[in-house]
Write a structure and sequence with these properties.
Order of helices and strands of chain B: HHHHHHHEEHEEHEEHHHEHEHEH
Largest sheet of chain B: 6 strands, mixed
Oligomer: heterodimer
Largest interface: A-B, 45 and 40 residues
Number of helices of chain A: 15
Structural class of chain B: alpha/beta
Strand content of chain A: 5-15%
CATH superfamily of the largest domain in chain A: P-loop containing nucleotide triphosphate hydrolases
Number of strands of chain B: 9
Number of domains of chain A: 3
Strand content of chain B: 5-15%
Radius of gyration of chain B: 28 Å
Chain lengths: 298, 390
């Protein structure tokens, strides 16, 4: 992308790929690309944090390399690993060959025996890639420190062979659901973006973009309903992903407006906690009234 | 919101950026030179089209967490208002220095309160015990009459407790002597030296996890009797376990980790007085725990954390709040241990409303009123769950 793209251009590029953004999102993406800094995105689940990375890889017309974090994830899984089995085989095969210690070492610690994991892969590509480090808060704290060298200097040090400098600098997106607080060191190296639940207008726009054939009344009602349900004290609030799932489900059943029975039977699409579903059922009439659905009594 | 430095109209961009960053630093933002350089670099290539675009630009670069993200808009607005004010009237603004001297008087006051709390409640109690059983061993003495000489034993027990708590395994590996799992990486590396002849295997095992302990103590009026023990307990715990967060509450929650980390017990006592201005006030467990949830839980609790709550469960606050707070803590942590000094009494029943509501969210419920009972805590920690039958 050119350097001096305006914020509106970025919004339009994202929109072309079906992603509705706002000024703050577009500005963060613009600056992250311009400053070549990773973008740390936090926010509740299902508001489209991961989606940004996917869309960006389409916008930039490049690959998306994804590292899904989990507890216990270590450098071997994230950066690189030596192929031990292959090394063993090589050594066994060449037992009789008259190779010196140095020669052997040089061979088995060469690129042929190196397995690139996402982080190394992302900087060794010729063309700049999109690197998504998803849900980093799930990995343990020690893991964050693996990133630091990569994120600030764009290089990875492999003790056996030396430092690998990046051939191209990837566009890095780090997402977190705030299960735990991330370290200051990591935050300092990133630009920060908080994405919250969308406003009614934005959500409606998203639903209509994703499902062009949806009935307008239904879409409006769904978005109103979601807005109201997020005001409730629930264990797990539904995100945009749930809204879209629900809208898809309802419109595929050729429903053109919300009714109490329909909502009741499809609550499982938006709420994923037993207690939440029960709470929502209890106050369903009230909720629907706010949305403007009058229930037929009896 | 504070402004230490006078905000003035700056004629060049760098000065302006620096002034704004300073303003944010005064308001608790951590901004380095790196961020300032980034801003200037962006400005060299990109001119924001509108005021709100300019705000987004600053925000993207300078904000580093959620709290700042929420605060930023208001601060930005305030900065510009103040800037335009500064233009209107260039002089005025030297009345900011007269708030501090009162503090020391206040400190003395709180020290008095702490001292009273420490000694007031238990002096008579001590006499009473020493008259009716003169030769009772240390281990049966009520903690309300605990002496500093016994700190050592307490420390020992707490060390055992913290070791018992650390019984989870990490998914990381370390070298092992037991021959369960071969460490291929190490084996190959070592064999290379001997001409690639593998004649010795190396093994690995899962590392034990560090526990992440959170200690929340009740220092309200009803706990006054156990005050000395409480402070000893918190102090020893902090000395034994480095990864410990300590909080106390009566009507409000206060973090004490920094204070307790001092090696000198006397100093700790003095500092405690400054930190907690309302020892032995009323009890609002629910509100205090909720406060913990809002401010600290996301940062401190994970599936490795063990939360130890030390309270008698007498709550004067909203019970619904208490229930929700306990539910949330229980969900976010590995285990919740409730030590209740009253539970030492054989006739005790958790009949207070607060205690009843909390019980479903407690994994281990036991007494802690003297060393002996603390030893039994060690026993119960072997089990993942322990609740006596009432």
């Amino acid at each position: 992308m050119e350097k001096n793209k305006s914020i509106n251009d970025i919004k339009k590029l994202l929109l072309d790929q079906g992603y509705i953004s706002d000024d703050a999102i577009a500005m963060s993406i613009h600056l992250a690309m311009f400053l070549k800094k990773p973008l740390l995105i936090e926010g509740p689940a299902g508001v489209g944090k991961t989606e940004i990375a996917k869309v960006m890889s389409k916008v930039l017309n490049t690959n998306l390399i994804r590292l899904q974090c989990y507890e216990g994830l270590d450098a071997n899984q994230a950066i690189y690993e030596w192929n031990y089995q292959k090394q063993l085989l090589y050594l066994k095969m060449n037992e009789q060959a008259d190779l010196s210690y140095n020669e052997k070492e040089a061979t088995i610690f060469s690129d042929d025996f190196l397995m690139e994991r996402p982080l190394l892969k992302s900087i060794m590509a010729e063309k700049s890639q999109v690197l998504l480090i998803d849900e980093i808060d799930r990995a343990d704290e020690e893991f964050e420190s693996f990133f630091l060298e990569l994120l600030s200097d764009w290089q990875i040090t492999i003790p056996e062979v030396g430092t690998r400098k990046a051939k191209s600098i990837p566009f890095v997106i780090v997402t977190s659901n705030r299960v735990r607080e991330l370290s200051e060191a990591l935050r300092r190296r990133c630009l920060y973006l908080w994405i919250d639940y969308p406003t009614f207008e934005k959500e409606l726009e998203i639903v209509q973009t994703k499902l062009p054939e949806i009935n307008e009344k239904l879409a409006t009602q769904i978005c109103h309903f979601m807005e109201e349900i997020r005001q409730m004290k629930l264990e797990k609030l539904p995100g945009i992903a749930e809204t879209i799932d629900w809208a898809t489900a309802l419109s595929s059943m050729h429903i053109d407006h919300l009714e109490k029975e329909i909502v009741e039977s499809t609550l499982g699409v938006i709420l994923k906690d037993w207690q939440d579903i029960r709470d929502a059922q209890m106050s369903l009439s009230e909720l629907l009234e706010k949305v403007g659905v009058t229930s037929k009594m009896g | 919101m504070r402004t230490k430095n006078l905000i003035q109209r700056q004629t060049n961009l760098p000065a302006h950026v620096i002034q704004f960053c300073r303003f944010l630093r005064d308001n608790g933002f951590v901004i380095g030179i790196g961020e300032e350089c980034d801003l200037l670099e962006v400005y060299s290539q990109f001119i924001p089209a509108s005021f709100s675009e300019q705000k987004d630009l600053y925000k993207s670069i300078l904000v580093k967490n959620r709290k700042q993200f929420v605060l930023f808009d208001e601060l930005f607005q305030q900065y510009w208002t103040e800037l335009s004010k500064a233009e209107d009237s260039k002089t005025k603004d030297k009345e900011e220095k007269k708030i501090q001297p009162q503090k020391s008087a206040n400190q003395k006051n709180t020290l008095q309160v702490l001292k009273k709390w420490l000694h007031g409640g238990h002096v008579e109690e001590e006499k009473e015990i020493s008259t009716y059983s003169a030769f009772e061993a240390i281990s049966n003495k009520d903690f309300s009459t605990f002496l500093t000489g016994e700190q050592k034993e307490l420390l020992e027990i707490i060390k055992i407790i913290s070791q018992r708590l650390a019984n989870k395994y990490s998914r990381r590996y370390i070298r092992s002597k037991s021959k369960k799992q071969i460490d291929l990486k190490k084996t190959i590396r070592q064999s290379l030296r001997k001409d690639a002849e593998i004649n010795q295997f190396f093994f690995k095992e899962q590392q034990k996890r560090k526990v992440n302990l959170v200690l929340i103590c009740d220092v309200s009026k009803s706990m006054e009797l156990y005050s000395q023990f409480l402070i000893e307990f918190m102090y020893s715990f902090q000395q034994a376990v480095h990864q410990l967060r300590t909080f106390v509450f009566s009507t409000r929650l206060v973090s004490l980790s920094n204070v307790l980390q001092d090696g000198d017990y006397e100093k700790v006592l003095n500092n405690l007085a400054d930190q907690v201005p309302y020892w032995s006030g009323g009890t609002r467990i629910g509100e205090s725990l909720q406060q913990f949830n809002e401010r600290y839980a996301s940062r401190m609790l994970n599936k490795d954390s063990i939360v130890i709550i030390l309270s008698d469960g007498w709550d004067t606050g909203d019970l619904d709040v208490l229930k929700n707070a306990m539910k949330s803590i229980h969900k976010k942590s590995d285990r919740v241990i409730w030590l209740n000094p009253l539970a030492g009494n054989p006739d005790y029943k958790p009949s207070t409303k607060g205690m009843e509501i909390c019980l479903p969210y407690i994994d281990v419920f036991t007494s802690a009123h003297n060393l002996e009972s603390l030893k039994s805590v060690v026993k119960h920690l072997k089990h993942k769950k322990y609740k006596p039958k009432f």
